[in-house]
Amino acid sequence: MKRLESTSKVIPSSIMIMILLLWEVASRRSIDLARMLPPPSEILITLISNIQVLWQHTRITLFEALTGFVISIILAVLLAILMDGIIIIRNALYSILITSQTVPILVIAPLFLMWFGFGYLPKILIVILVCFFPITISLLEGLQSVDKEMLNLLKSMGATRFQCYKLVKLPAAMPNFFAGLKISGTYSIMGAIIGEWVGGKDGLGVYMMRVRHSFAIDKVFATIVIISLLSIALIKIIEIAEGKMMPWLQLQKQKNMEE
Question: Reduced to 3 states, what is the DSSP secondary structure of residue 115?
Fold first, then answer.
């Protein structure tokens, strides 16, 4: 099992290295290709040489993404518990939540900018809009899938609704909750970038638009690298929090590896 686990980690890394090497060689041999697809080494040099400028824009995007992400988590948890506990609210709001996701974010983003200006607020609202739904639905499904017999046992023993959530419902719904967090984590960076594309003064989205207009393809790719690293870092942080809040899953994984 351990050998299989190590192999599953080595294979993706090997494939990625091979792709980068082929990319490097192909771009070096073709001038036309290099104009559209700069070699990875050139992108890395551009990233290092422009790190100060990129960091200034990264801070803005990260602030917008994390602020909207945290607010969406709080709202999603509150609404999911409310919808789980009160059937009328669930029936009334569930279809509205589904409908809200049918409108493309690129259509709503310009309206937010017209209503709230070009500051942080419209970008944060866009992040909340794209992150709120996956967390709410995932957590709600987790709360709804709890074993009814366990709940009936607790109620027969005189447990309150708060105790039912604390002892059974919330722990059982944690896997669904973190699954929604991982999806929304990547969406948060994307939402902030889209908001900056539509209109803004600073941020990675604004920087990308500027260098694109000047046909600085290497700087565009350097920005894409930063965006990808931010998304990966956020996913890793969520996975660490998942391991801390659900240690029984880590024990189960270790047991499976030993077997």
Answer: helix
Q: Which pLDDT tens digit goes with each residue over 15-38?
A: 888 888 887 788 777 777 677 788
Long-range contacts at 70-75 (CB < 8 A, ≥ 24 apart): 71/124, 71/128, 72/127, 72/128, 72/131, 72/132, 72/135, 72/184, 72/188, 73/131, 73/135, 73/181, 73/184, 75/128, 75/132, 75/136
Which candidate, 205, 166, 208, 195, places its Cα nearest to that of 81?
A: 166
pTM, two decimal places: 0.83
From the options 1.10.760.10, 3.30.470.10, 2.60.120.10, 1.10.3720.10, give the CATH code of 53-258: 1.10.3720.10
**Identity of the amino acid at 139:** L
